[in-house]
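Good day; I would like, with your permission, to put a structural problem before you. What I wish to show you is a protein chain and, alongside it, a tokenised description of its three-dimensional fold. I would ask you to consider whether the tokens describe a fold that such a sequence might reasonably adopt. You will find the record immediately after this paragraph:
***
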Amino acid sequence: MVDGDEETRAKILDNAARLMFRDGYAATTMQKVAKHAGVDLELVSKLYGSTYQLVRAIRDRALFESARVSAEKRSNAVQANESDPRAIFRQWAELAKEVSPRVSPVLLLIRDNAAADRDMADLQRVMDEERVQRMSENAARFEKFGLDPARSCDVMWVASGPELYELLVIKRGWSIDAYGTFIEQLLVGTLLP
């Protein structure tokens, strides 16, 4: 394997995620990740530096790299090309069905370790701020439909959070389709007249 090629990076991240979800963040060391990925510890350290950076890379890959076109870019395209807010919310629900199963477990892992680990607490804070910023930008685009940007931001922030996925899909066993329908109904019912 070539140092840092895409296949090697994917193998490292796959094994890091598997170990973190199975054994927990605190029990997952760089050495364990290297062993399970079949690479040298030096390479894992060179590429990621710390388990904190591994978590961030796992989250970024789930959010930005798992689809041909990232969910963020597709969301922007929907807003640019669609004039009906109901249709936008319907398409956002479809994106939520695609993205939430990949991203929510990582965000929940971060949340669950934030109380005991300062790096995870900082990462959670940063990611919450990024999500609020993203939802604020989305909400500003909805002003043209007569929607209150602050309220829109808050509702979209809740709808895009991992907690809703955790409660409905993980804990209550909802199907991903039922979850997507709920997201659409939440956005339409709460924000549109």
Summary: The CA atoms of residues 159 and 183 lie 6 Å apart. The mean pLDDT is 90. The chain has two domains: 6-49, 68-191.
